[in-house]
Amino acid sequence: MKLEMLNITRKFSDKVAVNNFSFTMCEGVYGLLGPNGSGKTTLMRILADVLRPTSGKVLVDGINKSDMGEEYRDLLGYLPQDIGYYKNFTPQKFLEYIGALKDINKKEAKERIDTLLEIVGLTNERGKKIKKLSGGMKQRLGIAQALLNDPKILILDEPTVGLDPKERIRFRKLISDISKDRIVILSTHIVSDIEYIAKEIVLIKEGNFIKSSTCKGLLEELNGKVWSITINEESLSDYEANYQIVNMIRKEDGIELRILSNQEVDNTIGIQPNLEDVYMYYFNERVN
Question: Could you cite one Gene Ontology molecular function of this protein (predicted)?
């Protein structure tokens, strides 16, 4: 399957939330990475058929989604930032309700619910009220509802916000496991969410497509731009004024700085970049 975004623009009054955005996806996990307010959610809502673009179009295997109607929505699974659970429902009842909304045959829905609760690790919680579930459990339930119709396009908008590190790891493994035969689009501003599972990372800033590459490719582009130096306290203000410091560690022998710079900084040593460096390089305005 091929999902194409062609010159997508979305305006709200005089504000351009997404600007002439084009990109093509096939099966696998794609990480949509950008700061808050960069247009990620607007773009995801357009892909989820919740919002219409001001201009541009979305194609599935060459067919405009606007011409597909219900056929396009049948391909979709969507986990928005705020899903809005009925707190007194149980996971079982909630998924049955979603199955009815998606017009899934009752017998098929029951079998699918059993399978999904097992996949997301909620079989033992299927009879508990949702208001008693942890944040991580609610997010896993959100994944289950998005997968209920066995979608070929799975859209996840900031899915790990509020999760602890253990739940983040579990979530990433789950997404990786289910991505083999579907397009998974995961929007986030948290680099660790996509560092190890994304087939390709798409950078978006102020509604504009910046670039896309594999994690390895993005890191290679920053070779020779990340520097380390240990300084004394008296020198810190000068470095903060003149360089983009992305990390600072106070040690017994001084303050170790991690610096982003296009040119070599005197008395520093070059170090290997990481994805946080990539984020800061493209989304923080100041790079020397």
Answer: ATP binding
- Domains for the chain: give ranges and CATH numbers: 3-219 (3.40.50.300), 220-283 (no CATH)
Q: Where would I find the H helices in the chain?
A: 40-47, 65-68, 70-74, 91-101, 106-119, 135-147, 165-178, 215-221, 236-242, 275-283
Kindly report the CA angle at 149 between 147 and 153, in degrees rounded to 5? 65
pLDDT tens-digit readout, 229-274 = 999 999 999 999 999 999 999 999 999 999 999 999 999 999 999 9
Who contacts 222 (Cβ-Cβ below 8 Å, separation ≥6)? 273, 277, 278, 281
For the entire predicted model, the pTM comes to: 0.89
Q: In what order do the strands lie in the sheet with 15-25?
A: 15-25, 3-12, 55-60, 63-64
User: Do residues 194 and 33 touch, judged by C-beta distance below 8 A?
Assistant: yes
Tell me the torsion sign for CA atoms 96, 99, 103, 109: negative
Question: Given this model, what pLDDT does residue 281 score?
Answer: 93
